[in-house]
# Entry
Amino acid sequence: MKYDLILYLWKRLKDECKMKKHPTFNLKSKVENVGTHKGKGHRKRLRDKFLASGLKGFHDYEVIELLLTLATPRKDCKDAAKAALNKFKTLQGVFEASSKSLCEVPGIGPKNLFGIKLIKSAADRYLEKRLIHKDPLNNSRELFEYLYHKLRDRRRECFNALFLDAKNRVISMETLFEGTLTASSVYPREVVLAALDHHAAAVIFAHNHPSGDPKPSQEDITTTRRLVFALRVIDITVHEHIIVGNNCYFSFADEGYISRMNREYDLQNK
# Structure
């Protein structure tokens, strides 16, 4: 009996030694670590850093990484963020990219692009609300910030109108046309109908040049003239037409185009 007990203990000891060499020996510790990832501590540090001092000191890829973590609970996002920045070149380029293009980046899919799309839409809404019911003619900085943020990285030309009331306060903002803007693609009739629909007393136009150079083309000048004339017929004033470029803009009003077009209209309709 004693011999049998010693033999049993000896076999148990040998079995335990074998288990220590077996890859499943630390199964418990592996199970306990399920759900962790290599970036868990890094993610927390990013969030704490943002809560402490905003985005100051953040690299652009870290901003993207932080946004991706909003809908990526158990995966490191640093590589995907760097890949997105490499593909679209700038932080603005990432924000302006289509969902389809973003999903082409390894590590980004239909779910975790949520944060990127949310921040862009929220910023647009914020800047728009800062202008609503204000006089943009006396808040030129806020007007430019809104237009620059909205239009600077668009890959296609977008023609926008800000509709104003009789006190020059913004009633509404609307994108009227997209694509290559020519005198034949911007329809004065559609602009007039939109202005009447908003009960506007005045209008400010704005569009972007994807090339980054805001210098107006002859088509831009011709289109602006047609719109000034069409709206004057129904007593709606065109205050401005701004072309947004790369961190710069061209003002038809500042350069004297709007006043000359109005004088020309007056001469033709005496």
Observations:
- The CA atoms of residues 127 and 145 lie 8 Å apart.
- Residues 134-268 form a domain with the Cytidine Deaminase; domain 2 fold (CATH 3.40.140.10).
- Confidence is low (pLDDT under 50) at residues 23-36.
